[in-house]
User: Fold this.
Amino acid sequence: MASVRASLDGHTPGDEREARALARIVVDLDALPRPLDRQAGLEHVTGSAVVVGRRGTVLHMHKRLHRWLQPGGHLEPGEEPSAAALRESREETGLELAHPLGGPRLIHVDVHGAAHGHTHLDLRYLLVAADRDPVPPAGESPEARWFGWDEARAVADEALVGALRAARLQPEAGAGIGPGSDEPETRPPDGAVGRGRRPRHNGGDDMGPRDPNSET
Assistant:
């Protein structure tokens, strides 16, 4: 939990929606008895990822929602959100993925409604991939592919737009840097979106209409 709090303390929101989400997550981490445990209550932390590479970003068609989303999902017992984002993204895309050089990098946060009355406090991390096609395993959505940034933005919902914007500004985006790549990984510049000091906010209000079926 300490590493989660530290990453949130160092995160700068990119817009007002994300600022409200960040303020609410910070408050709820203290208020909820077990915020990382989805069995503890209707409101809990999830981990998702924006996968980047030479061709842009990878999205998958959600099997139930029938729309293009970033990979991610619930945490396993004892799992950190960054580890859940990596595990779920590998499972849903079939790609060999990795956190950037230097370790997990939180680039975006969002709060949104989900199935069964749940509210997801979603932490979004950057993951890097080499230039290979996704090969989702049996049981996962068979539709997962690379999108150019403009194409991804065109199919993204409001909850994903900010994450795509933040990911596109990262130095790894479009560089073909990832597991199996011949190019070296690079550290982000100090001014990269998604890093820096978190401003104070007194938010925590509802993040807008809840999608009763959203997963991440």
Observations:
- The chain has a mean pLDDT of 84.
